[in-house]
Amino acid sequence: MTESPLHAALAAAAADVEKSLDRLLPAAIGPEGRLMEAMRYASLSGGKRLRPFLVLESAGIFDVKRVCALRAATAVECVHCYSLVHDDLPAMDDDDLRRGKPTVHKAFDEATAVLAGDALLTYAFELLAAPDTHDDPRVRLELVAVLAQASGPHGMVGGQMADLAAEAPDAEFDLGAVTRMQKMKTGALIQAAAEVGAILGKASPEARAALRGYAHDLGLAFQITDDLLDVEGRVEDTGKAVAKDAARGKATFVSILGVERARAQAERLIDQAIRHIAMFGSRADNLSALARYVIERKS
Amino acid sequence: MTESPLHAALAAAAADVEKSLDRLLPAAIGPEGRLMEAMRYASLSGGKRLRPFLVLESAGIFDVKRVCALRAATAVECVHCYSLVHDDLPAMDDDDLRRGKPTVHKAFDEATAVLAGDALLTYAFELLAAPDTHDDPRVRLELVAVLAQASGPHGMVGGQMADLAAEAPDAEFDLGAVTRMQKMKTGALIQAAAEVGAILGKASPEARAALRGYAHDLGLAFQITDDLLDVEGRVEDTGKAVAKDAARGKATFVSILGVERARAQAERLIDQAIRHIAMFGSRADNLSALARYVIERKS
Fold this sequence. Notes:
CATH topology of chain A: Farnesyl Diphosphate Synthase
Helix content of chain A: over 70%
Oligomer: homodimer
CATH architecture of chain A: Orthogonal Bundle
Strand content of chain A: under 5%
């Protein structure tokens, strides 16, 4: 990534989110202090902060106060981080490394990892429901509703279960099934992140739908690129073991479409994503640039 | 328990909650169907339904519509059931049986148990945030806030972490530490259950505080009785392995106070709990009877 307005905005958002997490996550005190340490370890370890960035940028379109948008962005990131902690568990993906660091169950222990994930998820709703997030309780309630739907059995957790089913030796996942699974597993939360900004800004139904559409296409393109990186990526760039999916014989966009068609599909989705937000003009420049970056990234 | 108004009310509540869970929990469809099956297995397996009963009875004091109270009661029970699923995991208490049936990770597998717990927790907030729970969005938001606080790092999950810390060989848990841990681990959700009824009924601050006080004392007495049953209970009555805490050398109310003083303390708490709700007169008869039952139960 070269120095650019997007680069600057991503870096500023990541720094703000890091500070916000540090400020908002509970301090490690008392006999349960290990839990808070693990919550902090799981979330204060950098990462792209893609979802908080979507919250902040979509909120920015509607001139939402940065402090409110940051709280909501932090809640969304807590949900994302919880999902990573649980996904990494030995019973799930059994990963030892995440962003080049030991995963939570490696740095702490399995019980603490289960509980830290639970706590991050619960704390996200606590954050959203608190008055500091928005003056209007109806707005806060809608944030809770959208985040819960995106993360629950019809969203992220359901997608994770479908993803495990896809690993079974007799699983038959065609393009439709893989697309549906990925929309649930990663797409739903990405979509919710963009929607959170619109909700905070009391956006019109049309504006909200435009951001939903943008994030829908962005999320799929993001996942296709992840699959491409899984095949092509080098371990130094991605910071995790590569070609894991291929080694498991698991159906992915790339295994079904092949590298070239998958890449073309990601590019089509990104063009479509950018068209969705044309209505916001230059206010959505960073979101457009993000869409292009998502399929060009190397990690 | 002999046939009594309490018995009838408990049985009716348990039946209603069972029906409500069955109606409200998502159906098992698609490649992620195993997740919904596990959510249902974890929650549709009976149990005392103490927390939903507290919601229903406290809501009843304020003439809350039964259908609204049942939705909120169902959400609270989802949180309770999620906590049991995760507590039973091999990395945690490593229990094979729950209510005489194989635990979720035994009946399904560990990954599914982790995800089913996650999904039940998330779904609880989805239920509370939906319009059917109460007409007033501010009420729904307050339900979310109270349930999240009670379940999160300063409540149930924090208590679970402190409980694990208490199992360490070098742990020094005195009466104060055990009381604090139990207030977080089991007390917070019990208290939230009674408070949910008050919130639904837009109760006065005094009435809400009375129900909080009642549930606070009830929760502690409930836990002390659990500790007593752990020492004295017979496996046929409790449906789980007994004397586990003692075998682990873990500090409990009974190990610190001894059987007689622990029992006396539970009785004092129950008297106090009943005094808290005297202001509601005969409307709180079931809650008073429940308090007495909690320390007389054999399982």
